[in-house]
Amino acid sequence: MKVGMNLLLWTDRPDPSRHLELLRAIRDWGFDGVELAADNMDPADARAFGLILRELGLGCTTIAALDAAAADPASRDPALRRGALRTLKLAIDNTRALGADLLCGPLFQGLGRFSGQGPQPDEWRYAVETLREAGEYAALRGVRLALEPINRFEMYLVNTLADGARFVREVGLPNVGLLADTHHGNIEESSVPDAWRQAADCLFHVHISENHRGVPGSGHAVPKEVFEVLQEIGYDGWLTIEAFGRQVAGLNARLHLWRDYSAHPDDAAVQGVQYIRSHLPPA
Fold first, then answer.
1. Cα–Cα distance between 162 and 138 in angstroms, integer?
2. TM segments (predicted)?
3. Catalytic residue at 55?
4. Residue 31: which CATH number?
5. What's the distance, CA 90 to chain centroid?
6. Does residue 283 lie within any of the structural domains?
7. Among 35, 123, 210, 242, which one carries the catalytic annotation?
8. Which of 143, 148, 33 is nearest to 93 (CA)?
9. How many Cα atoms within 13 Å fall on the side-chain side of residue 103?
10. Percent of the chain scored above 90 by pLDDT?
11. What is the pTM of this model?
12. Residue 138 phi/psi, 5° resolution?
């Protein structure tokens, strides 16, 4: 397994002219790679980042999220479904430009939209159709999609890995699977290890994220059982830390970040990679 770090701890607008030293630090802290937001990145920046990452010897995965006001695969409005497909195609192209082959995120529906009821059959069908089209495009570009079930307070279409597995099986493409996130699983699953075992054949990617979004290992969402079950099911992909802090102003309101969870903004990375590696077999 490889250990990655999502740059959302420091920025929601990665910039190759500003973040070279950060990337060097991430490498020196012991990470194998990074995760970058690809849906709002200029293609020229993606190419520049790709060169930097190769020079530093860092691997890469990417992430995207969809604003329901402009892009929503599950919407009854065809314009919003087309917007979702445009956003996803841009993210897929940027993923390739970065030298990555996996794009992840809560791509089932646009975020910020709630209907006051559970998913309706037509919403589910629209989302499956849109993600199938995105998956077909991704396959042509050599990219896999890892769809992330997230908690009921952020999305209503897919909240559990079981529902996510049903969704990707309906999409029916070998390059479309699931992302399992410890933060969301801590909220929605009766047993995170059991949920991961049952969805093992669909599991493409893992986010290590604490219940409070701080330093992995300092809460209760990332116990040793998480790593034991991954070894049990033969998972050999990325374990990417997704942590957040108040230093990224654009995320505070969206993720309800009102207090700090560590003494230093870098702690989730520096201490988190040590915690993860302490639970992995020696290389």
1. 23
2. none
3. no
4. 3.20.20.150
5. 16
6. no
7. 242
8. 143
9. 32
10. 84
11. 0.95
12. -60, -40
pLDDT band at residue 3 using 50, 70 and 90 as cut-offs: very high
> Which amino acid appears at position 122 of this protein?
D
Tokens of 192: 């995170």
Alpha-helical segments (H) within the chain: 20-29, 43-56, 78-97, 121-140, 161-171, 182-188, 192-198, 224-232, 249-255, 267-278
Task: Write out pLDDT tens, residues 93-102.
Answer: 999 999 999 9
Count of CB atoms situated within 10 Å of the CB of 42: 12
- Residue 232, CA distances (Å) to 185, 197, 225, 264, 275 in order: 18, 8, 10, 34, 19
Q: Residue 41's domain spans which residues?
A: 2-278
- Taking a C-beta distance cutoff of 8 angstroms, is the pair 212, 186 a contact? no
DSSP state of 111: B
Which residues pair with residue 60 across a beta bridge? Answer: 34
Active site residue 242: yes
Count CB-CB contacts under 10 A for residue 232.
Answer: 13
Contact 253, 16 (CB under 8 A): no
Number of domains making up the chain: 1
Q: State the catalytic residue, choosing from 35, 123, 148, 210.
A: 148
Give the list of residues 6+ apart from residue 201 with CB closer than 8 angstroms, or none. Answer: 165
Tell which residue, 133, 72, 141, 71, has the closest CA to residue 103. Answer: 141
